[in-house]
Amino acid sequence: MSQRQRLITWTLALVVIIGCLAVLNLSTGSMAIGWSALVKLLSGHGSATDTLVLLNFRLPRIVLAIIVGWALALAGNVLQTLTNNPMADPSLLGINNGAGLAVMLLIISAGTNPALTFSLPIVALLGAWGSTGLIFLLANQPQRGLSSKRLLLVGVALSGCFSALMVLMTLKLSPDNYQFVMNWLAGSLWGTAWSYIVWALPWLIGGSLILFAQLPVLDAFTLGPTTAQTLGINLKHRQLGLISVAAMLAGVSVAISGGISFIGLITPNLARRIVGPRQRYQLPLAGLLGSALLLAADTLGKLITTTTELPAGVLVALIGAPYFIYLLVRG
Hints:
Layout: H1 3-27, H2 35-42, H3 48-83, H4 95-110, H5 114-117, H6 120-139, E1 140-141, E2 145-146, H7 148-169, H8 175-185, H9 194-213, H10 215-222, H11 225-230, H12 235-257, H13 263-275, H14 279-304, H15 312-330
Antiparallel strand pairs: 1-2
Helix pairs in contact: 1-3, 1-14, 3-9, 3-12, 3-13, 3-14, 4-6, 4-7, 4-12, 6-7, 6-12, 9-12, 13-14, 14-15
């Protein structure tokens, strides 16, 4: 089976899986809604309560999981391609924690009143870009340029530093703000309002289109920096631009969903195993795998317990951490 045929087969399978997960997610939660109620809603005869719950709470949560999983997977795919390292991930490089640190600073200074809640995504985006710029600055060597290994090591070090600072800052939070921050850092998919999704979609769609427009450049990077240079690619400028786009996707995603890790680590590796390293096949498949993985984690978190919902970020981390160790041992 050719790469194109494998992509088509997996795309159709993942679309069906995402659709099934979405239906299951709609019917589960603290307020159980039966299949008959779903059928009535789809036919336009649902009750006012069911319509409110499904359309204003559960459906935007499903859309949120799909677009965030897609964006984080694309960001991880780009970072792994640019660094030529299968363990690169927005969370491991400090991009997610940079966004989280910026959010923490805002909450400590201004609290979490509704008027400021809508500024969290912008602050998180600025934090992601700031941490990316710092990583790029520290990893770049004037004589040798940007080293992929140095980039990963600097990112891991800064990620640990940002994480430690966030832990220290929690000591200054009020109980209400502390609970909000803990849920946010656990990846609880908090931005489940249509207004947040409308705010995030232009950024995520724009970033995705830029990456797909740069598929030939990403393919050149998979061949190694020397080959990319012989093809006339300005490595430093291209790396900075593409990493900035990846940081934007990760920052916006973390802003509206919370601290979700490992999706950008797992999905590009799986896509590479299925369709190979060619970016026109790997990139879209990684995005679909990310959507399916995050939606599955959110649905499973609602099914495991009826008293409360487990954050999707926790369940993804339970899968991602062992996979990271596997990659580390194998490498």
